[in-house]
Amino acid sequence: MSSQPQRAPRTDPMPAPEASRPGFARWLSQSNDVTSVFLAAGQNPDLINLAGGLPEPALWPVDELAELAAEAVRNHPVETLAYGPIPGLPALRDLIAARFSTPTLRLGRENVLIATSGMQALELVGKVLLEPGATTIAAQSPAYLGALDAWRPRDPEYRPMRLEDAGFDPVTALAGAQFAYTVPNFSNPSGRLVPLAQRQALVDAAHETGTWLIEDDPYGVLYYEGAPLPRLLDLSGARKPGTYDGPVVYMGTLSKELTPGLRIGWIIAAPEMIAALAAAKQGSDMCSSGLGQMIALRAFERDIPGRILPDILATYRARRDALCAAMHEHLGEYLDWQHPSGGMFVWARARDPRLDTDRLLAHALAHGVCISPSSVFDPEGLDRGAMRINFTLNAPERLAEGVRRLASAIQATLAERS
């Protein structure tokens, strides 16, 4: 009987172990997830979102914007569909310059750069002014978390500016800082309106120290009482005749007075700053959307923002009042706050030091409501005793229900700590 030769067992080579991939940048481990939490909250109809700075969609002039978009593409295909100038469409830059010029503030195209939203404006300032790990920002405290996120990759040091403190000295605060960051009109998150005397003192300090002074102004049209105060840019421009070349860097956006989806913002500053920002923008997005810019241009020309502003103010004023009334009814024993005269937020501080608002966020989500804890507005993440509450997105009855849910979440948080 013949025997078949035995086959040697198959010995396929073991796959070589994969090399480990390079790690992600260190700053990612320091970022906050609150923004993604409250944006995701908008996708859950049962969750009442009191966290974000979100406008009311029903106020958007949808039909007019649709017509403008169609006209823009049909009549201006190159300007809307091709790559555009890095600093922005010349006609829109000219319009912004004219819109913000006053008898004592002379602005030209060279003073204006169009940004892809106010967030890009913040990021570009960080690119042109911050050396990684080696610079100081004097920041109005508490500070807008989007600004902190924009500058986090460059690892700056922060010098808090508490403008309401009796001993606040703006010259000392600004001296040696690479720039100072302020939101004078209804600050995000505090809702505070910086009074005229402090505005003038900040501008004087910027001119004296040479420090750039960032004026972030997304809420400047949202005054519910009183006449608008002069911008820092206006006060700076009044010091010297001629085309503006002072230290104030003004940032504006269409997000609150028209719609956020266009992603159109602008920076007004000295020509040398605009040139630096344009160089940084080239490496960021090359150019902002031509379609968005053309819609913005035509909307301004037809005064659409001006025509819808009275409805925006009436709606938000009523919602602010509804929120504060519900807070007085359900939260008065737990929180202290001030009735804001404009903007989108109420800043509330806990009376009981056991009320950790980071922990409160978890309980609030479980109770069907979302708020923004104070830790994300503190560069060091140490303030855990306050919260930002938005009133612009929800109707009065939904705000009242959100406050009732928040009261239950506060009770649960305090019971847990007990």
Please tell me about this protein's structure:
There is one protein chain. This protein has 418 residues and is of the alpha/beta class. The protein contains 14 helices and 13 strands. The strands form three sheets. The protein has a seven-stranded mixed sheet with strand order 2-8-7-6-5-3-4, with helices on both faces. Strands 9-10-13-12 form a four-stranded antiparallel sheet, covered by helices on one side. Helix 8 links the parallel strand 5 (179-182) and strand 6. Helix 5 (117-129) crosses helix 6, helix 5 (117-129) packs across helix 10 and helix 13 crosses helix 14. The longest helix has 27 residues, at 304-330. The model has no long low-confidence stretch (mean pLDDT 94).
- How big a fraction of the residues is strand? 5-15%
Number of strands: 13
Strand order of the largest sheet: 2-8-7-6-5-3-4
How far apart are the termini?
A: 88 Å
Give a quick account of the main beta sheet: strands, pairing sense, barrel closure: 7 strands, mixed
Number of helices: 14
Parts with pLDDT < 50 across at least 5 consecutive residues: none
Order of helices and strands: HEHHHEHEHEHEHEHEEHHHEEHEEEH
Helix/strand/pairing category: alpha/beta
Average the pLDDT over all residues and give the rounded result. 94
Shape: globular
In helices, the fraction of residues equals: 25-40%
Tell me the Rg in angstroms: 25 Å
